[in-house]
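Standup notes
- HV: blocked on the assembly model, inputs below
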Amino acid sequence: MFCHIFLYRIKELLRNPWHLAWNLIFPLGLATAFFFGFGNLIKDDPEQFTTIPVGYVKEADQPFDQVLTALSKDRKDPILKVSEYKDEEEAKKALRDGDTKGYYIQKGEEISVVVGRNGVTSTTLHQILKEYENQKRVLETIGKKHPEKIADAVKTMEKGQEFLRPHVFNKYTSVYMNYFYSLIAMASLYGSWLATTMLSGISANMSERGKRFESAPVYKMTSLFAGILSTVLLQGIFNGILVFYIQYGLHLSFGVPIWQVLMVTTVGGAMGITIGVFIGALVKKRGLQMAFSLAVSMVTSFLSGLMWGEIRQIIESHIPVINRINPAAMLTGCLYNLGNYGLTKNFYRDLYSMVILTVTLLLVSVAILRRRNYDSL
Amino acid sequence: MTVFKTILKIAKRDWMTILVYFIVFACFGSLSARGNAQKENETYQDERMEVAVIDHSRSTISKGLIQSLRKTDKVLTPNTEDLTELNDDVRFDIYDYVLILPEDFEEEVKAGKKDAAEYLSGGESICGHLMTEKIRLYLQDVVLYLKSGYSTQEAVKGAGEAILASSHVKSEILSEVKTGESTYLSGIFRFSSYALMMLLTEVIGTILGNIRHSDVRRRIAVSGTSFRKRNIAFYGAVLVVSVLMTGLLIAFVLLASIGDPEYGKIPYYILNEVAIMVCGIGIATTISSITTDSSLISMISNTAVLSMSFLCGIFVPLEVMSQKVLVVSHFLPMYWFAKGIQYINDHGVDAVMSSTFYSYLGIQVLFGVGFFMIGLIIFKKKELYAV
Amino acid sequence: MESEIVKIDQLVKRYREKLAVDHFSMEVRQGEILGLLGPNGSGKTTTINCLLSLLKYDKGNITVFGKAMRPDAYDLKGQIGVVPQNVAVIHTLTVAENIDFFCGLYIRDKKKRKQCVEEAIEMTGLGEYRKYYPKKLSGGLLRRLNIACGIAHRPKLIIFDEPTVAVDPQSRNAILEGIREMNRQGATIIYTSHYMEEVEELCSRIIIMDRGRNVAEGTTAQLKASLKNRETIRMDLVTCTDEIIRDLKEINHVYEVKQEGEQLIIRCDGGTHNLLHIMGYFEEKNIPFGRVTTELPTLNDVFLEITGKELRD
């Protein structure tokens, strides 16, 4: 009986064009749109430091020239790409046309910087000039009080001593992959529609075939679990196809062995299914079930970063409890931690949270549905 | 009941859809617009970064460093010392930089160690580079003073003074350069296109789908009202519903942005909004000519609008998208809406009305008319071939 | 004495303020086709749903095959087949798959199930449509599929809840013939409808329901015999005088004579050859008359007499 119901449920749901569209094709389409929208950001991080094109208008040779040379030529990764201009008008034109981000201009002893807009790049150009002035001042101060130490000081400056080391984590995936993690979360939560369709087929108060089904000698729990297993399997397959498409179709790596990603997405799919079962157990009207499922999916997915990537972390900083109960955030967090830090405590926290939520919703739904008798149909 | 009233009644039944998308727009659109808004400045200002500092050292040098940083940046003490959480905060722009000063920081600095402290900056970012350089400069100054025979206190004081003195370096902004900082108004109107397109394609698509259902259509066709009157009433009602939904979104923006410095540009944003409304009606017509099933209409609407939003600069800025994709985006109506938004944002109140702006509006309206005609043609062909 | 397959005793079901079933009792004997006749909203479907333990009820007892019917009485449910009022099939499964699926809820043995499915397809005439999806079927074929899904497992008790609604006459006849065949093969049938012609034609015994109550019970002949009016004769008469009406009332078995426009309506409470006697009178008196029709009482007349309204009201 279990196998009979299980196999027919798979057939029934797999042939439903609506579910194929929402649970499989729509996420694939959206993944493709994401890829075209910001796939290049994943491959070439726009936050990455790149050489700053800058202009230079000088009247005469200055020590500052050496600073610019040191920053542009005498190193492996130049900070600046310096273009010299005859006069300020040329430099202004280059800035207006976007050929440079700013220009240094020498007027007598003074050097100033002109930029197009405020921002980190402009501040960097400003900082270079500040550093030049700073070094001059320090040397002057030392020279006044301890002139014998000047040579050492110059040597130390020329060496360019480093004091800081970046903390490196073993793994790294682009922060823009978070959109794809949110998409997988949303697709998993769409599994709630599979569940509500399955439930309507076995509940007398939801459909005519449900009435026929409940008139038959079938144990309620057998039909429920067979239905749940079939939907979990289907949603797991849909999620798997999406994962494979992202990794091998769009060539965006999750950064970990794919079986780990599939494990997480399968748990996520099961979570989406049990959310649907829970909604179906509480809400009788089909239209309302769909509306609740959509609302839950969209709101939780948005709060996990579907349209605004930073929001999950903003919530984590200010009201972390929301991320602890948001199923989409759990799944997104799980995939994010997996790809960036590996099997850490945060990963397990999110994974176990998904499992606990799934089991809890399942138990509550079973308790509601098990001895359900209808007052009206 | 007249055709006009019927359309309004059908639209009223979709109140849940309208409410959901309005809430999405009001909450999320507003949030992300506020989060991404930048202030335009006419004078040069150093970018103030948010730096989280964990100071285990509490030494003279560490305190001096933090004090120096406070003069140019916003220094915060984070709630956590977990490195992964701090790294996430940096990667998702909660902080720009995290500095971790260990207990033996002062000793390590004096010893000239390269790893006296650790930092997190989200990879090789420009913010990280700048911040690292600032800190390196300060510590280098301290070391120079120390090596020159100054005491620790004197070295810290001297380094602080040198940093302060060098801040008087002259920097200017060239005013003729287009800045393009995104304002709150441009952000929220940009997001509104997603909400509006979803509303129009779903609600109008459902209305048209209902009316175009074969039995309903036949019943209407044999009524006593003339074809011309029926269609005027019908499309008039569709227009009224569209205007009402557009008006609802605009009303929210008007209320939410009272006092905004860019308030004077609102009429232009509204014009742009009306243009995309026309486009939305056209797309809804096309979708409803393909299918009358409300679930399918919803599916097609979501796929089309969400995809367009990502490809046309609504959720992802146009500047960061690849050129190849932008070529394709030119053929999508929301791209021209986004260009319109950008144009209004980048120009002064008196400089918006130009041939360029008119062309953006015109292209959107043309798209709308085009989609409308396509929808009518498909519908007619389906009738002809009894599909 | 025929054994009782189903016994419903003083069933009461209330939907908030509305009393849908009001102390309703009925018995279904083995091998019979029991008709449950009543207008829309009389409580037929509610009674059936209570019988199947799909609905909670407020009072009463229901036994099937001698045992109390409960939601977990799977042994009893296994012997019941249901053909619900609305088509209850899965639209993404083919005809054959639908029948196989629902049959499989009753019969686990694959070989036996396969045989049952084939027989059901043949019985309902769906052989050439086995690979069709329900949305491709006409209304009549859909109803046949609905029936096939309910009877494939060869139940001992079959409940048909208005199975011929919106069905074309050809399909309707096929359905009714199929029901007779199932009965001949040993199934006991409960047939609910608001079409009196079907119930008269098909059912060996009829219960008439109104407002949740059993208002009449018996065979067709018994129910009609309970009526005063046994024959209604209608005559087109150009002129009708009080004398004619008085004279007609003198004829044996004529108990009512009424004039409605140009038509004379004569009701008789029994007897045979009433029309002969009446026409003999007109011939004798040389009174010209037009078209003449004679009607025997229907179940609608039974319902009208008991409740004061038509079955189709």
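- HV (later): unblocked. The CA atoms of residues 108 and 116 of chain B lie 5 Å apart. Chain B has two domains: 3-39+179-384, 50-166.
- Next: hand off to the docking folks.
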